[in-house]
Amino acid sequence: MAVNPLLGLSISELGAKLRSGETSPTALARAAIEALDSAGRELNAVVTVMEDRAMGAAERAEAELTSGHDRGPLHGIPWGAKDLLAAVGAPTTWGATPFIDQVFDFDATVVRKLEQAGAVLVAKLAMVELAGGMGYEELDAAWTGPGRNPWDHDSWAGGSSSGSGAAVAARLLPFAIGSETFGSIVTPASYCGVSGLRPTYGRVSRFGAMALSWTLDKLGPLARSAEDCGLVLDAIAGPDENDLTSVTRTFHHPAPDGRRDGFRFAIPADWKEGTEPGIVDNIESSLETLREIGTVEEITLPDIPSGQAARIIIAAEGASAFEDIIEDGRVMQLRAPSCRVKPHVHSMIPARDYLRAMRVRRFVSQAYDRITAEYDAIVGPTTGNVSPLLTRTLDRSSRPTTSAPIGAPGNLAGLPAIAVPNGLGDRGMPTSLQFTGRAWTESRLLSIASEYQLRTEHHMAAPSA
Amino acid sequence: MSSNSGNNPEMPPMAIAALERFGDRLDDQQREMLIKTAVQFEEAAEDLRKWELTNGDEPDTSFKVIEGQDS
User: Fold this and answer.
1) What is the pLDDT of residues A418-440, one digit of tens each?
2) Residue A261 contacts residue A294 (beta carbons within 8 Å)
3) Are the beta carbons of A337 and B33 separated by less than 8 Å?
4) Where are the domains of chain B?
5) Residue A423 belongs to a domain with what CATH number?
6) Is residue A353 domain-resident?
7) For chain B, percent helix, then strand, then coil, each to nearest 5?
8) Which among B17, B40, B47 has CB closest to A397?
9) Which three-class secondary structure state does DSSP give residue B9?
10) Is residue A306 a part of any domain in this protein?
């Protein structure tokens, strides 16, 4: 079944058509439901299509628009939620067999906020089981099967927000919400060729989202462009009494005083090490574009064992969050063989090692705050490789590689980042440019990424698979 | 120590503890993967121990005092 091309438009383009009467919220919701139920299933991107809830919300959105009650840019726009967000009307499986029948009777805060903004929740989207926190090595680590990449169905969509990346890339939805503990928004954004925004830790309430690592979990959008990511973040950001880590700092998009040029970019001096040649070429081309709006300086990143700290923190917090299924043996129902074994080790990490990791983390936070205070963004490849074939496994060696060196410290320090497509690499698969900024500078990162996307067309490229 | 933990003197304490507690549910291949995982975590912890910390270097915890109501 052919997917309705309207679903490939940006949020603002769709908004114009909704307000001109060229389409309607019910027509868009119906198109998204059909697309997700056909092409979405082929990609293993979908857990549950929420037809009843979606059509009810779309009818309300339509009636409101007709009567002149306009809730803003997301009014009538269909979207999908990573299946770790609680939502009334569908199971919330966390991607994992032990939770296949889990049902919540409330909406996660982001679901509630997007509904208040008029957006129409259409589906729960597939994810790596337990958001990858059990240390998966196999790329089919989800009860729904391997997340297939719209650019090549034999390649991986990325994890852990696999369905969110694939559904947006395949033009089945204008945007989706993903989560990131360590790479789970920016990696599928990179592999699938979409824009993905990881907000500052605390910017978006996690209430109603599966907890993997309380000190690292973040929620954020994957969308067609940086501009669209900003529109979604504007709707979901803000304090929530149900999540004590959420902050009262305001975020508005577009920022009223957004700068358009004069930026200072830093790039790690060793960024080419371990990076595929095609990605090196595309990043060098991107740097030329960035020099049109600023300067680019090479810097040496501090030599702090960030990857090791992140690994221990996520494993220890994850073992606590899922202590029940480790203790009672349900962990053995997980799909990936590695996920049936590693949690037993995670649950034995000594408190001493966890606390040392958290003490080292403070040095990471302080060092990267100093760096990001000097520059508008640290730039580099989002991932050092393009999407791997599904027959591959992930390397979980004890020491991180140098490619994409900002991943571990960026997440440990809770810094915002945005990943945007910057071309095609090996096997014709998407490559991605990442901007990481100081805490709470999402507006600046969005301005930079939008300026980049004004000068390039990589984010417009669509898969033909 | 149960027979699950084996007799390898090089086995990391995390592996010994995990096998002691959960070994009965694991086959030989899984036990091998468990030991390899424990070695990797031990290496990661060893790297962190090389980072010099002083008594005053606090962890980045999120603990907050809950503001109680006045009695």
Assistant:
1) 999 999 999 999 999 999 999 99
2) yes
3) yes
4) 13-49
5) 3.90.1300.10
6) no
7) 55, 0, 45
8) B40
9) coil
10) no
